[in-house]
Specification:
This protein is of the alpha+beta class and 179 residues long. The protein folds into two domains: 33 residues; 142 residues. The chain is built from two helices and eight strands, in the order ααββββββββ. The strands form two sheets. It has a five-stranded antiparallel beta sheet with strand order 1-2-3-6-5, with helices on one face. The longest helix has 31 residues. The radius of gyration is 22 Å and the shape is globular. About 17% of the residues have low confidence.
């Protein structure tokens, strides 16, 4: 094979590789944008983590999962914050209220370790996404209750002080039996 023929072949292969890369990137983007809540939850977990609860309300989803580490839970939310009409996403608040059936100590409130935090676009809408690891003293209780509250602010501005849960929308309760 002459050098000129080989160079043309390599050039054409490079073009094909670039085209394939563009096509694969486009397809992955289309698939990721159309994922449902279950696929989003599965994509947020790693080996050894197991979902204990998924709550859904319209376009909003919340999950709680156990991990291989004692007293560590993985928690996440995906909230529709799309304002529409080309407007930026609305402001929002999420509140997790932890309690136990036997009034056991849930431990000190510690800062969660953030895994993911940001905005994603799915099905033409903007969603706020957050996934964290949170320490909760599970060894002192029989059942962990987690009530989840959300609030969306259509004016784009949350209040300057935290809202009491009574002024937020109740998404639901996750109950987790501790073994």
């Amino acid at each position: 094979m002459s050098t000129e023929v080989r160079n043309r072949f390599i050039h054409r292969c490079g073009d094909v590789k670039q085209l394939l890369l563009v096509m694969i990137t486009f397809l992955v983007g289309c698939i990721a944008e159309g994922r449902g809540p279950e696929e989003w939850v599965r994509g947020s977990l790693i080996e050894g983590e197991a979902v204990t609860c998924i709550l859904r309300s319209q376009d909003d989803s919340v999950f709680v999962a156990t991990t291989q580490q004692d007293d560590i839970l993985k928690m996440g939310y995906l909230l529709n914050v799309h304002a529409g009409n080309g407007m930026p996403p609305v402001a929002f608040a999420v509140s997790w209220k932890f309690s136990s059936a036997n009034e056991g100590d849930l431990g000190e409130s510690t800062q969660p370790r953030v895994v993911k935090n940001g905005y994603v676009k799915r099905d033409g809408k903007w969603f706020a996404e957050e996934v964290v690891y949170r320490k909760v003293l599970l060894s002192t209780i029989d059942v962990l209750n987690m009530d989840v509250f959300t609030k969306k602010f259509t004016n784009g501005q949350p209040p300057s002080t935290p809202l009491p849960n009574t002024e937020m929308d109740y998404l639901g309760r996750c109950e987790m039996a501790i073994e």
